[in-house]
Amino acid sequence: MQTTTYLVTRHAGAVQWAAQTGLYYDVHLPHLLTLEQLCKGDIVIGTLPINMVCQLTQKGVRYMHLSLQIPSHLRGVELSAAQLEACHATLQEFQVIMA
């Protein structure tokens, strides 16, 4: 079974950060509009809403969250790859199960 890795972000800085860190992905999507193209075992990398991450978990798709430590003065600002690095960008795997 072949899996696909998706980078889901509309932010150019995140795409640049991925390239600079050697992050591998097969497909870049600015938005994940539907989960229909995803298969069990696929990997989604991004900053998705928790309810969507729950749906990914239910479908057997792995979710890697682009986690940042963003200071208040940078909230809502389009970040560059260098700023992402300065905000300690890391990937953390999450599985969300609805109680």
What does this entry look like structurally?
This protein has 99 residues and is of the alpha/beta class. Helices cover 26% and strands 22% of the residues. The chain has 3 helices and 5 strands; from the N terminus they run βαββαβαβ. The longest helix has 10 residues, at 12-21. The model has no long low-confidence stretch (mean pLDDT 96).
Features:
single chain; 99 residues; alpha/beta; five-stranded mixed β-sheet; 26% helix
What profile does the largest beta sheet have? 5 strands, mixed
Number of helices: 3
Helix content range of the residues, please?
25-40%
Which structural category fits the helices and strands? alpha/beta
Q: First CA to last CA: what distance? A: 31 Å
Mean pLDDT: 96
Task: Describe the SSE topology.
Layout lengths: L4 E4 L3 H10 L5 E3 L13 E4 L3 H10 L2 E6 L13 H6 L3 E5 L5
Parallel strand pairs: 1-2, 1-3, 3-4
Antiparallel strand pairs: 4-5
Question: What would you say about this model in short?
Answer:
The protein has 99 residues and is α/β, with parallel strands linked by helices.
